[in-house]
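Loading example: each entry is read as three labelled lines plus one structure line.
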Amino acid sequence: MEEALTLVIATLAATLRVATPLVLCAMGGLFSEKSGIIDVGLEGKMLMAAFFAAATAAVTDSAWMGVGAAILAAEVLALLHGFACITHRGNQVVSGIALNILAMGLTVVLGTAWFARGGQTPPLSPGERLNPIFFPVAGDNVIVYAALLSVPLTWWLIERTRFGLRLRAVGEVPLAVDAAGISVSWLRYRAVMLCGLFAGLAGAYLSIAQNAGFSRDMTAGQGFIALAAIIFGRWRPFPAFGACLAFGLLESIAIRLQGVKLPGVGEVPVQLVQAMPYLLTLFLLAGFIGRTVAPKAAGVPYEKEH
Amino acid sequence: MQELTAAAAIELRGIDKSFGSVHAVRGVSLRIERGGITGIVGENGAGKSTLMSILYGLYRADAGEILVDGRAVEMTGPRDAIGHGIGMVHQHFMLVDSFTVLENLILGAEGGPLLAGGRAAARTELARLAREYDLTVDPDARISDLSVGEQQRVEILKVLFRGARILILDEPSAVLTPQETDRLLEILRVLRDRGVTVVLITHKLREILSVTDKVIVMRRGEVVAERPTSETGAEELAELMVGRKVRFAFDKAPSRTGEARLVVRNLSLVDGRRVRVLDDISFEVRAGEIVGVAGVSGNGQTELLQVLSGIRQPTGGALEVCGRKVDASHPADPAEMRGLGVAHVPEDRLRQGLVPAFLASETAILGYQDREPFCHNYLLDGPAVGKYCAELMERFDVRPRTPGLRSSSFSGGNQQKLILAREMARHPKLLLVGQPTRGVDIGAIEFIRRELIASRDSGCAVLVVSVELEEILSLADRILVMSGGRIVGEVAAADADERTLGLMMAGARAA
Amino acid sequence: MSATRRPLPGWVEIGLLPLANVAMAFLLVGLIVRVIGVDPVHALELLVLGAVGSSESIGYTLYYATNFIFTGLAVAVAFHAGLFNIGGEGQAYIGGLGCGLAVLALDRYLPGLLMIPLAILASAAFGAAWAAVPAWMQAWRGSHIVITTIMFNFVASALMVYLMVNVLIAPGSMTPQSRGFGASAAVPSMQAALQWIGIAVAPSALNLSLLLALLACVGVWIFLWHTPWGYGLRTMGHNPEAALYAGTNLKRTTMLAMCLSGALAGGVAVNELLGVHHRLVLDFAAGYGFTGIAVALMGRGHPLGIVLAALLFGALQQGGAELAFEIPAITREMVVVIQGLVILFSGALVHLPRPWLQALLARKG
């Protein structure tokens, strides 16, 4: 009995650990997508942030400097995305992919040049990392709590504030926002920057909280799982949070299932469990689990007439 | 001290605006008096909407001055207009569908960084406005659940909520049923009685006559007349709107009609939003005649052409094209229609009739790309296409005569001639033409009309849809008038004139 | 309609503007190299030398270019139809599965003349099938093809790992790879082929798949610009309403474009598996799908431009490897950086230099 309880608690803690970057990315992505800017570049922002967090922490011996650098790095990419998509009305998907690839390359290039460890940063000592606050085994560091807090905060910002109201409007009918005398571009820039902030935190979590350093491609598709969670949550914070937890649970089960034979089923392929978030999202997108409701103006550059 | 003349609510002085080569507004000066309802009427493209968009700060005027309450003001954007107490209800609603009425109301006037306080205040204010102006809407209803008339009421409330004392309505009845229109006019009267200055932009004379105090008539970007409503009537206004244009004189032989090529019976079309855009339409077009469809744009003509050409399928009734019956259960696509001998010159040439990025030679075979002589053994014959295009250009005097030039590099008139050439070259049995001379220069207009008549004389059945009355009158043998998705009248061209047609189109039926 | 998008003269649009885009990307790369503390000019010398300095390096450059031609064409065909296929990576991967399955099943029974064409067809068919599902979802269900193809990349990756680890792994092997293909399934190397006609070159990974890639270029060019289906496809991409008016079936054309795109991506499997690895391995398509986007954007969607862009990226890939070998501070991921920047400047920021070029031309003219 006690064993079962321990297992449950351990699995829950593992779920939360895995879900933390997903939650942060999903909340960040929500702001961007709600404003009408599609962001397939979450992965790249997170990767870049993870690298700069670890690199800065290693050089300055300060975890907090690392967090700051992570946010800064993610903001640079976010602003580039905004510059391309909002100011120059470029293709949002192309821009997102470009930034992903750029991050993939630049982290390794800079890492090798600065630390000469094949793209990795030096291992971080506990003093250079964000450590668990209450339960050492659970890994409940400050970013985990930030992620938990980010969900009601996102909900509150979107649903209860003037900014949120305008944000939702600009993603649906930018013309209405413009006609109300509000700047479409500035609203979208703010959304994109919020996205950078959250993705930066998620990146910092990966390299200086969950792990003790940066390793190449350490995001491993989590930015896309966060994107899937947004779709799965139908662009609403709490359901998206639920999707992140579900995907996190799948991942932590996948780790436990490795090589285990289940009665009646046999060995469940780990890869199947890992691909579940994508498969589920595809089923959702195909309309088998209800319709999805993306913001109407998502992906469409706003062109003001003169 | 008493002022001799009170300052006008709005005064425009010498407003001028061009879009590229189109001179939309030509030095317009006008005064809109405080209180009262001023109507601005004119045909499509007369410059009414552009003028009001300039007043609301959506466009910048090239020249001229705007005075509000006698003071010159700068309108750099809607925010300025709102600040000066001007509000606008656009033809296309600026509402967020997924929002509630209240959320739409406070967008841009939230009253603080948090919604809670502003929302409560807005609720109170909304209740007050509802009482004062007799405008009831459920504040918590979602916009997508409201009828079009109710949505418009929300737009009006939005404007009042922002404290506007001057209300501009751009074609407000275009999307309304007659009953909803009556309700709207009622609301406008209440607003006037409570001291709001109302500007009503419309082309519907019935509305002007029933609700305005003063009418301003615009034509081709200019103000051509101002009348107190009590001193004018539908006939004079219709005449002023349309103007006395020179009719192109054609030596048009009397038509020799043959068999019916197109028979339409009780045709109807219900669109995705469950709006009945075509309603119980019946007519026929015979070989050797031109049937003109007149009407203000947006009254079902576009959809009619789409159904007749196979782009959309009818939801009720049927049509018979050259012997083939098409109805909801026997659909036909545009390729099949072409095979039957139906050619179609679409209304919007840049979006449908050609691909701007394609070469002229590619545009010359759009819709016929898989037919001889352009295509054999599954391959396009480039030289044959180029030669064909050169022939079309020669015959229809398309300039420059360069098949290798991008379609977007040709002027509107030459693009239109190329499309017309493409559609007429294969000697169709039925030719559908939408807005044959929209955005086309004078020289090309005459050429295009002559070709259409020549086509009729050679035995083709021609259906012409146009918002230009003068065009319909000079081309058609018979004229159908469309309004609200229905055919509201049919007249022989010999018995028709602009005034009677204008009255029918405006819904103020004379006959 | 916007005033800022006024078209420039033709030679500027297809010549100068793309060059300006790429130049900006490379300028930024030079800056990054500088930041790392390496002289950009020296790095460029090493890179060029590494890419075309010997017949071996030229061979490798062309071998990489072969993959880029396939994925570049794949992206371009979809792009001409107005579809953004990000799934080239997964389609190439699954194309490899088809290729592997066909060879593993039949290489003992069929001679090369039958085996190789069959394996090529299997690559194309599996690649097309993997693209057909997102295409169907887009055409009939309205699911955004960008999102679905991204998801399909991950699903393809998981599927292949599972199959390689559990099903297709060679008995007794420790690494997840299939048994070696029979000799009848090997596409001859370019060295062997040239030797046949009496030309001696250094051995490299370059094989006759390059000819297939060039053939594909010609095929795509004929299809897009010289068949009625290609015409309909391009019409849909530019202007769906005009395509509808012209009687083009939009759903079927979406399927056609995506299947063709997936089949082209499958060409990577031919080059990698039949030409080089001679067995089914993991991750052989890694990165090529995404580079295809850069190649297609830079080549402006035209086969000729794609060949040129593929050569450039092939040279970067090969030269970058040599450069990384010579200067430890630089890794071959520098190429990935360049790809990212090229996609950014030739794709999302394509209009950035427009006003400057306009001003430049205005002053001259």
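DSSP finds 16 helices and no strands in chain C.
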